[in-house]
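Progress report, Aim 2. The chain analyzed during this reporting quarter is listed below.
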Amino acid sequence: MVVAETQVEDLPPSAKLVLKVLEYNGGLTQKQIVDKSRLSQRTVRDALERLQDRTIVEKNIYIPDARQNLYTLSTPGADAPAEAEV
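Predicted structure tokens for the chain:
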């Protein structure tokens, strides 16, 4: 997913770093993001909430351990209804 610059320009640097970590590594759990970004758990949690509010990141169940969530970049048009072919 290509994120428009206008979607992230007013986000804090920590949220931009979390976004880049997800762009480079694909789907990760919150703990994996903390490990890779070297940010605190609280900072990562706040950044993920901000990114989810803007529908840049989506949260899914992490299959190997259902107690955790898997954070991935949102797919464009995932929330939009499918268009009928003419």
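The beta strands are 28-29, 57-61, 69-73. DSSP finds four helices and three strands in the chain. These observations will guide the mutagenesis work planned for the next reporting period.
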